[in-house]
Every structure is written in C-alpha cells, then in structure tokens.
Design a protein that fits this description.
single chain; 325 residues; mainly alpha; 14 helices; 0% strand
C-alpha cells in the first residue's frame, strides 16, 4: 500500500485523530487551570449537541436551526430534578434524554413534514417558541433570570458529589465518550446506511416501500434525546440554566461546528464544537468583543478551504511532471 492510500485508509483517518483527541482529553486536566477545565467540559457538552445536529444535517438531510430547544429541555429537566433533591447524575441523564426525546417526538410531527428552507424556518420557530415559553414560565424555570442554586450531582448512588471543576470534567468526559461511541456504533450499522439512502434517494426509497417520513421522525426524536443528554451535561457544568441556553445563537454555533468538523462525522462534530468554544471563549480573550468576527472568518475559511469539513481532509501526493491528472 502506497503512502497516500495508507494515510487515507479509514483506520488511519479515524484512528489517528481519535487517539490524539483521547490523549489530549486525558492529559488536559493536569495542564489547565479551573477555567480551562470548565471550558473543556462546556466544549464536550456542546459537542454532544453538535453530534445530534450532525445526525439531522449529515445523515438525514435535515439541517436544523432549532436543535438548542431540546438541549434546553434536557438542561431544565436536570435543573428541576436537582433543585428537588434528585442529584444522581445517571438519573438526570436518563430523565433529561427521555424528556427531550418526548419534546422532539411532539415537535417532529410538524417539522419532518417540511424540507429545505421550510424545515430551517420551522425548527427556528420551534426553538424561539421554546425559549419564549421558558422565559414566561417563571414558576417552573425561574423565567428570564434563569434557574440557579442547582446542587452538584452525584454520578451514581453512594458516590460523592462533584464539587470541583476537575471532577465534573471527568463525569462529562465519561458520559460523552459513552454516548458518542453509542451513536457512532448505530450510525455505522445498517441504520446509518438507511438514513443516508433516504437522504440521497428519497423518492426511490418511497417507491420501494420504505416509510421515509417515519425514519426521519425517528431520527429527529433520537437527535432530540441526544441534545437533551448534552443539556444535562451543560447543566452539571454551569449549575445554572437560563432561556439563553436554547437561543438561536447556540443553534447557529453548533451548526457551524458541524460545518467545520464534517456533517457525517460525529468525531468531526466534536472537534468543531471544541474549535467554536476555543475561539469564542479563549481565543477571543486577547481580542475582546471580536469573538463573532473570529467565528465569521473561521467559517468563511472553512467553507472555501474545507468544503467537507475537517473530517473530509484527504492526503494527496504531489503529481510529477507529465503524470496524467
């Protein structure tokens, strides 16, 4: 096998970045201060949300602008459970995921009937309605002031509370690893191929008798549950939830993360989310007030230089003179 073929083989293209990312995430807590560790935790939580967007945009062909809505539902579910004394992390993750999946199941009945710009506008409207409802329902959500005073969670029954940035980071990292590995396994199975076939050949799949709309609705529900999982993680990091967590800007940022990382790559979506958080919260430090400008420049560069995202990078040897193109 020649060098380009070796570098482009799936094992190298996925294995090397995955090993590098794993090494970085394992070493990072000993190299960063509390603020840096907290940013990494937020990047992982946002990365789970980005993975849910990649399911819709990359595998189902339904790019969404409202995926922060189920993310917000999951975060509020964890916050409500925490303030009522239910601080077991696994229980919060399960309840947040199920609640967000239920939310997506209801809203998906409307959303998956549309396509293209109509789907974008419908999901955007659903997201804004969710944010408005969260801001108005003061007795449950704390209104626009947000829900604060959320106690630190215990990962499992009998375990100590996560009372430091480092312990929260390990919990978020472990939870993210498990859920992203599960998503990757499902998308690598015939389920992923079925979604891709519905995305690329919808009419042909319908004529073959496949219930395409039902498949897309199920994908929408699964992505919503995954977004709720990320919302629970974000709540455990911030110990605070507000309607802003479900805002349009968050939905746009995770869509940008998917564009940067690669629409059909969960690992690329994670990487893109990390890049967004690093640019918006860390790199913008030396350039205060210019975070949106940096993100805009990064998006333009990515669109022109990496149309398939970071995950679409291919290695090519320079051609010799006289060699056919």
């Amino acid at each position: 096998m020649n060098l380009p073929a070796l570098l482009n083989s799936p094992r190298v293209r996925v294995g090397v970045p995955l090993a590098a990312l794993a090494a970085f995430l394992l070493i990072a807590p000993s190299s960063f201060d509390g603020y840096g560790i907290s940013l990494l935790s937020k990047a992982l939580a946002l990365g789970v949300l980005a993975v849910s967007v990649s399911i819709l945009a990359g595998f189902t062909g339904l790019p969404t602008m409202g995926q922060a809505a189920p993310f917000l539902v999951g975060a509020y579910t964890a916050g409500i459970l925490g303030t009522h004394g239910h601080t077991i992390g696994v229980v919060q993750l399960l309840c947040g995921t199920l609640t967000a999946a239920g939310f997506a199941a209801a809203t998906g009945l409307v959303a998956v009937r549309t396509r293209g710009v109509a789907f974008l506008m419908t999901t955007l409207a659903l997201g804004e309605l969710t944010v408005t409802a969260a801001g108005e329902w003061r007795s449950l959500t704390g209104g626009t002031d947000g829900m604060y005073g959320i106690p630190p969670l215990n990962p499992l029954p009998g375990m100590a509370a996560l009372d430091s940035d480092r312990s929260v980071y390990w919990f978020v990292l472990a939870s993210t690893t498990v859920i992203v590995a599960l998503v990757w396994w499902v998308l690598r199975s015939p389920v992923g191929k079925l979604l891709l076939a519905c995305r690329d050949h919808e009419a042909r799949m319908r004529s073959a008798g496949h219930p395409v709309s039902r498949y897309q609705w199920l994908a929408y529900v699964a992505a919503g549950g995954l977004a709720g999982f990320g919302g629970v993680l974000m709540c455990s990091v911030n110990q605070y939830v507000s309607p802003d967590d479900g805002s349009f800007s968050n939905s746009a940022l995770v869509l940008l993360a998917v564009v940067l990382g690669g629409a059909t790559s969960p690992l690329g979506a994670l990487f893109g989310a990390g890049l967004i958080v690093a640019t918006n919260d860390w790199l913008a430090g030396p350039f205060p007030g210019h975070g949106p400008l940096l993100l805009g420049l990064m998006f333009i560069i990515a669109v022109y230089a990496l149309p398939d995202g970071v995950a679409g990078i291919r290695f090519r040897m320079p051609k010799r003179r006289g060699e056919p193109a």
